[in-house]
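Field notebook, page 303. I keep forgetting to write these up properly, so this time I am using the form the group agreed on. The chain and the ligand, NAP, are recorded exactly as supplied. Prediction of the bound pose follows.
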Amino acid sequence: MTAQIISGTEIAKQIREELKQEIAELRQKHNLVPGLATVLVGDDPASQVYVGSKAKTCKALGIYSERHDLSAETDEPTLLALIDRLNKDPKIHGILVQLPLPKHINETNVLLAIDPKKDVDGFHPVNVGKLMIGEPDYLPCTPHGIQELLIRSGVKISGAEVVIVGRSNIVGKPLANMLLQKKAGANATVTVCHTGTSDIAFHTRRADIIIVALGKPKFITADMVKEGAVVIDVGVNRIGKTAEGKAILCGDVDFDAVKEKVKAITPVPGGVGPMTIVMLMLNTLKAAKMAAGLAQEEVKYGI
Ligand code: NAP
C-alpha cells in the first residue's frame, strides 16, 4: 500500500493564505489589527526558536506582535505584573507565555493570570472547561492543528475508532475531548493510552486513526498498526546533529516501516509542527474579533 503523506507544511500554507486575506479585510473594513504578545522567560534555545518563528509568522500575516524576553532570574511577581499590563493593553488581543517556565515560577499561577479572553493557547481552566462542554472560544493550537489536518486530508473522523497515545494537558487530553464532541469533524470513539495502559498495542492495532504524542522516538512500530489506518505523529525528538550542526528530528512513529502499511501518515518534520503555529494565528484573529464585538463568521476551521 502506498500511503498518502499528509503534508502539514502544505495545509498550513493554505490556512496562512486564508488568514492573511481575512486579516487584511479586518484592517480595511474595521481598522482593526490583531495583536499578539509573546512572553519568554530564560534563554532555552528551543523556546527562543519557537518565539522567533511566531513573531515572523505574525509579521507575514499582518498581525501586530510584541516580544517580551525576560531573564531566567525574573521572579513571579514581575512576570504577573507584565501579564496584568498586557491584559489591560487594547492593542494586545492574545497573550502567549512560552512554556516551560523556570522552576522557581509557578506555571499554574501564570496561566490563571492571563485573561481567558486573551488566552490564545487555550490553557486557562475557563477555556479548558468551555472546550469540555463543547462551547470553546479557543481550541488549543496543536490539537486543533491535528483536527484540521485530518479534516483537510479527507479523513472521516465521525464514527472512527481513534486511539491517542499520550495524555498531556496540551495535546492528548484536549484532543480526546475535541474528537469526542457530537459535532462535524469529531464524533469519534476515543481511547487514550498512557504509562498506565497495560497493552498499548492492543488498542493501537484496532484503531482507524492513531495519534501519537509521547516524546519517544519510533515508539509506534509497524506491528502496532492495522492495515489502512491513518497515523498522526505529534512527537518531535532530537536524535542527533547533521555535519552542519542542525538538529536531526524524528517522530514517535517508525515512519519508514509504518508508511508501508497505512493509508495516510504525517511526516516529522513537516506534519503537525507547521499547523500549531497557524492555529495560534487563527486564535489571535478570533480574539481580536471578539474584543471588537464582531460576530464570528460561520466556523471554517473544525469545531
Ligand atoms: P508530555 O507532557 O511529556 O506527555 C507525554 C505523554 O506520553 C504522557 O501522557 C505520558 O504518560 C505518555 N508516555 C510517555 N512515555 C510513554 C510510554 N512509554 N508508554 C505510554 N505512554 C507514555 O508530552 P507532550 O507535551 O504531550 O509532547 C509529546 C510529544 O509531542 C513531544 O515529542 C513534543 O515535543 C511533541 N509536541 C509537538 C508539538 C508540535 O507542534 N509538533 C506540540 C506539542 C508537543 P503519563 O501521563 O502516564 O506520564
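OBSERVATIONS:
- Residues 142, 166-168, 170-172, 194-196, 200, 213-216, 234-237, 272-273, 276 surround NAP (CB under 6 Å).
- The mean pLDDT is 95.
FOLLOW-UP: compare against the apo run.
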